[in-house]
């Protein structure tokens, strides 16, 4: 080799080394700037947008997409979030399922120089505007949390291995930061939901009777204990005139916020109808029709509605699929009020019936939701009607509030460490001697 050739070889080597050094310095600068930019934010959307914009500049691409996948879903290709940034006028591209599936299986960077001729994706239909792309995984704790994809190198050139390596480093640097931001956002939304649930619980509690009305010759009590922060049970006392008061207890199918919203709607309906139509049968029939017309077929409400007349000591009731109330006499005998019909909201038209019973001195009417009799202990044994009846007989001389408290205490004793699975609601009416 001549001296001139040796000098040329050495010069080329130095130029290549300088090129690599400049590239390394540029990459370090890009990564440092990116770390500062995304480290200062907790907004997942802002972080993803920053990552895509910096990635486009880093590899000189036209368009970038970050797709986060739902790791909790049984479908590994289910998209949780998608963010997109474009520096071109092309239609926005979406990560196709074939590419996402490949990334789930391989979890490694991918360069596609020509999508339509790539044997790994034979038969996949690509957008005509996509000429080349880079796709890198976002890995958190060895699991795929998302995919960063950039499309079309500017100036009609192809992406290089250096571009793929840099994009992979960006993805590795960004994955945990994005995951932390996503978890922080989830926590923020959870706390907001908890606040809203707390407000809903206070509103629902305010809709319950805050005082027990005074009825001459009678003593009344009622209590609701939701299984969750808000519940689907409700009771109400609605004065009609100086002699009559409507008493109702309802239980919506399901639990939680949807059930509480439906119950609030039914409560408003019954209150307005009670004052306009002081008839147990007609009130339930009208309520049934209105509820059927405003809810889906999967929603219904069991409802016991009665009108207590303190002048003639009668209770006229209509039972719409609810637990049969118990009428405890002064001598301890128990009668179940078994007259009833379908739950409210199941059929638009149903011929509900009503029945009237006489309240004798010291008689006690106990109305409850199925959360009372179906309360479970750790052995999956229900509290049951028999145990409830024995307790009512043993405490029939107590005040209504004391009797109600004894029932709730006994339910909790029976349940032990088992969680409360359903709302517990009780109404007790006693005719004083």
| Main beta-sheet strand count, sense and barrel state | 5 strands, antiparallel
Overall spatial form: elongated
CATH topology of the largest domain: Phosphatase 2c, domain 1
Q: Which structural class should the secondary elements be placed in?
A: alpha+beta
Average pLDDT, to the nearest integer?
84
Low-confidence stretches: 76-81
How many β-strand runs?
15
CATH architecture of the largest domain: 4-Layer Sandwich
Please give a structural write-up.
The chain is of the alpha+beta class. The protein folds into two domains: 3-184, GAF domain (Beta-Lactamase, 2-Layer Sandwich); 199-431, Phosphatase 2c, domain 1, CATH 3.60.40. It contains nine helices and 15 strands. It has helices spanning 3-39, 44-59, 97-106, 161-207, 256-276, 280-294, 370-373, 385-394, 400-415; strands at 61-69, 79-86, 110-112, 133-140, 143-153, 218-225, 233-239, 244-252, 301-309, 314-320, 326-328, 334-336, 355-358, 364-368, 424-431. The strands form three sheets. It has a five-stranded antiparallel β-sheet, with helices on both faces. A five-stranded antiparallel β-sheet has the order 6-15-14-11-12. β4 and β5 (143-153) form a beta hairpin. α5 (256-276) crosses α6. The termini are far apart.
What structural keywords apply?
433 residues; alpha+beta; Beta-Lactamase; Phosphatase 2c, domain 1; 2 domains; 5-stranded antiparallel beta sheet; 9 helices; 15 strands; elongated
């Amino acid at each position: 080799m001549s001296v001139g050739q040796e000098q040329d070889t050495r010069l080329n080597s130095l130029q290549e080394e300088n090129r690599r050094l400049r590239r390394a310095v540029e990459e370090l600068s890009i990564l440092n700037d990116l770390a500062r930019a995304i480290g200062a934010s907790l907004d997942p959307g802002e972080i993803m947008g920053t990552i895509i914009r910096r990635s486009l500049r880093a590899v000189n691409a036209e368009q970038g997409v970050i797709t986060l996948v739902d790791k909790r879903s049984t479908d590994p290709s289910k998209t949780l979030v998608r963010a997109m940034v474009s520096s071109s006028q092309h239609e926005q591209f979406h990560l196709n399922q074939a590419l996402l599936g490949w990334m789930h299986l391989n979890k490694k960077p991918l360069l596609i120089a020509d999508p339509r001729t790539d044997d790994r994706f034979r038969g996949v239909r690509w957008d005509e505007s996509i000429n080349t792309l880079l796709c890198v995984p976002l890995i958190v704790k060895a699991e795929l949390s998302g995919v960063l994809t950039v499309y079309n190198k500017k100036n009609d050139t192809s992406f290089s291995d250096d571009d793929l390596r840099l994009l992979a480093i960006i993805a590795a640097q960004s994955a945990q930061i994005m995951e932390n931001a996503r978890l922080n956002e989830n926590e923020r939304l959870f706390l907001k939901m908890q606040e809203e649930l707390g407000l809903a619980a206070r509103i629902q509690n305010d809709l319950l009777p805050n005082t027990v009305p005074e009825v001459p010759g009678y003593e009344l009590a009622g209590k609701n204990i939701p299984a969750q922060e808000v519940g689907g049970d409700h009771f109400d006392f609605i004065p009609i005139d100086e002699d009559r008061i409507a008493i109702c207890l309802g239980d919506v199918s399901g639990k939680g916020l949807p059930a509480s919203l439906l119950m609030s709607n039914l409560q408003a309906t019954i209150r307005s109808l009670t004052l306009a139509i002081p008839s147990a049968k007609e009130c339930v029939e009208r309520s049934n029709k209105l509820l059927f017309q405003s809810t889906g077929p999967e929603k219904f409400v069991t409802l016991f509605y009665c009108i207590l007349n303190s002048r003639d000591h009668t209770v006229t009731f209509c039972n719409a699929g609810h637990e049969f109330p118990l009428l405890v006499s002064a001598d301890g005998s128990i009668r179940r009020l078994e007259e009833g019909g379908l739950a409210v909201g199941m059929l638009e038209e149903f011929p509900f019936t009503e029945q009237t019973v006489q309240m004798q001195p010291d008689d006690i009417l106990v109305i409850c939701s199925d959360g009372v009799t179906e309360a479970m202990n750790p052995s999956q044994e229900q509290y049951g009607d028999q145990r409830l009846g024995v307790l009512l007989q043993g405490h029939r001389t107590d005040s209504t509030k004391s009797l109600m408290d004894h029932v709730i205490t006994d339910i909790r004793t029976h349940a032990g460490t088992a969680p409360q699975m359903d709302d517990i609601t009780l109404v007790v009416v006693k005719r004083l001697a």
